[in-house]
Amino acid sequence: MSVLDIAVQVDARGLSCPMPIVKTAQAVRPLAAGALVEVLATDPGSQRDFVAWCRATGNELVEQTTEGTVHRFVIRRK
Amino acid sequence: MTKTKFDPIAEAIADVEGVPEAFAEAFKGPEGEKKPRELVIICYSGDLEKTWASLILATTAAASGVPTRMFLTFWGLQTFVKDEVRITGQNWMQKMMAVMQRPGISHRKLSKMNFLGMGPWMMGKLAKQHGIAKPKELLEAAIALGVELMPCQMTMDMYGLTKDDMIEGMGEPVGAATVIELLANGAAPLFI
Fold it and tell me: Residue B146 maps to which CATH number?
């Protein structure tokens, strides 16, 4: 685990498009600006989708890593 | 630190909470920032695969802060009749239409290779295996995300549908002029 102060973790492992994005959007919504969300996903398409989603919403993609089949994203709420 | 777990899919959908205000509000930028382009999905087809695609795009758009509307017309409107309503319509011909094509999101048929329901059943099985949310689950998520559902008044009249026949969360019936105004003001159209 990183030293980042994660406010909410979204476990979207096993879920397919569009649920990782939908669940993340739901998790991000109530947070204060600047809060960090960690997302775990196994959907290979999520690697590009989260980059696009962050660009579209203005949230910041702080970290993007892959371990085995699990993709991990850390997003800072706008 | 709160942890949100989303495994299995049904549970995942269940905790999509109701959002009273339009979801786009959540991502509203500072004053003067460019307004996000709106999206209007014209749901014309009642086929399973097209309904599925419409709902995937609608939920993703809403989750991306894009103000999203679905205009439900012709066969696309029958999809948004409550699942448990079997026969709709006021006269024999309208009722006959509902008999021939069962309304409701859980009773959609594939446009090709339906095979008396074998096709949709297999699609459902495969979706579950691959963690893919079904149309009904996506519809619930879409409503929770603030997607606006606009039923077509003309189609309501043609099928003899009443407000009580339709699912919860439906907006007021509108006509083509409402859709055209949205498009004229720059909303992106999808005709599915």
Answer: 3.40.1260.10
- What's the total number of domains in chain B? 1
Q: Are strands A36-41 and B2-5 parallel, antiparallel or unpaired?
A: unpaired
Please give the backbone phi and psi of residue B70, each rounded to the nearest 5 degrees, phi first: -120, 120
Partner residue facing A58 (CB), from B23, B29, B63: B29
Indicate which CATH number applies to the domain containing A54. Answer: 3.30.110.40
- The answer to the question of residue A1 being in a domain is no
Residues composing chain B: 192
Contact residues on chain A for B133, CB-CB shorter than 8 A:
15-16, 18-19
Cα distance between the two ends of chain B: 42
- Say what the pTM is: 0.82
Q: Going residue by residue through chain B, which has 192 residues, state the pLDDT in tens, using 9 for 90 and above.
A: 555 544 455 555 555 654 444 444 544 444 545 666 899 999 999 999 999 999 999 999 999 999 999 999 999 999 999 999 999 999 999 999 998 889 999 999 999 988 999 999 999 999 999 999 999 999 999 999 999 999 999 999 999 999 999 999 999 999 999 999 999 999 999 999
